[in-house]
């Protein structure tokens, strides 16, 4: 029975295993410190500092001025569904019917929750390779299911193997979440890993939920691979994506869920009975993003490459810290085990002595301890300031 209470009012038992988002809490800490006059340089979040492409803004403004402020079909605007379908086919090799195989959602986060709600019952289990984004386990818990961590190792480059997955399988396992490029590690799934994941899912009749929100942010010749494009797995794969990271549209809250018609038909019920639809004028902006913002994405990726270099170089200059270059996304996942500190203690040290905020690796689950995550989606000026502060800190803080 649920016994947790607030002010004497009973709350659902499901919340007993769910904490607030660690990354959201860090953002609130930064905002509070800045109100208090502290010059905090924040690398704890995952928000691009770029302005949304002008073509996207112009289209949304035009829609607003034209009175396009009403409900859309719950699946999404036909124009946006068509643009997403075309994008999936040409860029990802994923073929779905835009009329039956896609739902436009108010954020990729909502698409993820919808996907999990669609395939998990209370008591079911979903395997989540970790370190992982903080909301995967929380979403599962809110549904009444359980996220089972498959702990990846930094020494293996955070690569996933079938052997590791088999060790997490039970008779309650229903799904597997894959994030590529990965937050927080920056690892990009390769063909060998993908083949093992597909074979595992097919043999055990599991649904694959694939989070591809960072797909356009890859470096050093790495290429994004969509699992749903591989033979024999499309009918069991739900692909999640959105506009926040690649198009600098975090505040627009626009994402989508794509997959086989029978699964999407059930997912549509979640959409219809919760959020109804994404905002009409925001969807118009989404069409413009998919059809007219390629140059903006290329420019942002070029800048991320410079920022990655600044961040990794500054981290590797710290005593006891080692940081590999991430293959994708815009996070550096630094190994701080050589300092002798926990990730929480290290993050606190940077905050107290350098006024720099980072996310402790422990927030990202099993395998995250011993690391901290820094976002280089911040401006170059901020990153250069962080580098200067870390250099001063290194001079006064000898290696253990």
From TrEMBL:
Keyword Transferase in annotation: yes
Any Pfam family: Aminotran_1_2
Gene Ontology BP annotations: amino acid metabolic process
Chain segments annotated as coiled-coil in the UniProt record: none
Known EC number: 2.6.1.-
Cofactor(s) the record lists: pyridoxal 5'-phosphate
Stored SUPFAM superfamilies: PLP-dependent transferases (SSF53383)
This protein's UniProt keywords: Aminotransferase, Pyridoxal phosphate, Transferase
InterPro entries the record matches: Aminotransferase_I/II_large, AspAT/PAT-like, NHTrfase_class1_PyrdxlP-BS, PyrdxlP-dep_Trfase, PyrdxlP-dep_Trfase_major, PyrdxlP-dep_Trfase_small
MF GO annotations: pyridoxal phosphate binding; transaminase activity
Domain Aminotransferase class I/classII large residue range list: 39-379
PANTHER family referenced in this protein's UniProt entry, alphabetically: ASPARTATE AMINOTRANSFERASE
Family: Belongs to the class-I pyridoxal-phosphate-dependent aminotransferase family.
Protein name per the record: Aminotransferase
Originating organism: Streptomyces lacrimifluminis
